[in-house]
Structure formats: structure tokens, C-alpha cells
Amino acid sequence: MATAAYPPPPPYYKLYKDYIENPNSAPQPPPPIQGTYTLYGANYTTDDALPSLEEQGVRQLYPKGPNIDFKKELRSLNRELQLHILELADVLIERPSQYARRLEDISLIFKNLHHLLNSLRTHQARATLIHILELQIQRRKRAVEDIKRYGYFKSYEGFLKPFDDWIFYFGFLS
After folding, report:
1. InterPro entries under this entry (predicted)?
2. Alpha-carbon distance values, 156 to 89, 103, 143, 150, 171 (Å)
3. How many CB atoms lie within 10 A of CB 57?
4. What is the DSSP string of 114-144?
5. How much is the pLDDT for 163?
6. Model pTM?
7. What mean pLDDT value characterizes the chain?
8. Long-range Cβ contact pairs of 54-58 (< 8 A, separation 24 or more)
């Protein structure tokens, strides 16, 4: 019995045979998925909203609302975590059979810390993107100034800096 090393191509490849001559002849890609979907047996959602601690069944240790002082709350939770870890050490020495309650408290504090940090991720991503775009603008302005002044890119380092590894790896300037 003969078997192929590779499976045959899917039948829809024939729909793209005239794509070079007429790009509109190929079918349009399907629209993006909205809502929930299942992948490998697990349910996922396309919403980027961070579920609240209550939705996850976890008690929230910091105040609710949009005006949270993240720095203050993170410091407070960190101090509380340190205190609970010291109490856990005392419990392990004096009453080893009662350590489970302290571990639950520490777990609750960690979950609250992680939730606070995860709620800051969108702000961090936005700030990082703004910083990257500002650096790109500075490099491009410097390149334009060099072209106006010298007629070519004088400041190679600033403009092509992100590509240094590639340039020397492939031997363009070596």
C-alpha cells in the first residue's frame, strides 16, 4: 500500500489560480470572529476586558471604582503580603497544623496583586507605544536634517540602529 509523504493540497486552492491576472477573482477572507470561540476544547473570547475579581470568585482587598491609586494599593498589598509571610513562619513553628489558612490568605493577596498589575498593562502598552513612536520620529527628523545638510545619511547610527544586527550578520557593511 503506497502512501504520500505529504497530504494533498486542500481543494480550495483552485479558487486562486487566476489571482495573478485578476486579484479580485479570489474569495474574500472570512470576517474576524466576534464574541466567544472554542479552540482545542477551551472557550476564548475576543473581548480584551480584564474580568473583575468578583467574576473570578475572588474577594477584592482594595477599594472598587475607577479612581484607584495603584501605587498606594500595590504598596499596601505588598506590606500585607510581607506581614502574612512572617505570620506563616510563626504558625509553622508554633502550630504547624494551622498553616492552610495562612496560605489561603497569601494566595488571596497574590491574586489581588496580580489583578492590580494586569489592570495596568493597557496603560503600560500605550506608554511603550508612544515612546517607540517618539523615538522613530526623532530618528526620521535627524535623517531628514542630514539629507538637507549633507545630501546623504550622515547619522547612520541613529537611523539604522534597529537593523545593526542584521546588517553585520549578513555582511552588508563588514
Report:
1. Med7/Med21-like, Mediatior_Med7, Mediatior_Med7_sf
2. 58, 56, 8, 13, 16
3. 6
4. HHHHHHTHHHHHHHHHHHHHHHHHHHHHHHH
5. 60
6. 0.60
7. 85
8. 56/111, 58/108, 58/111, 58/112, 58/115
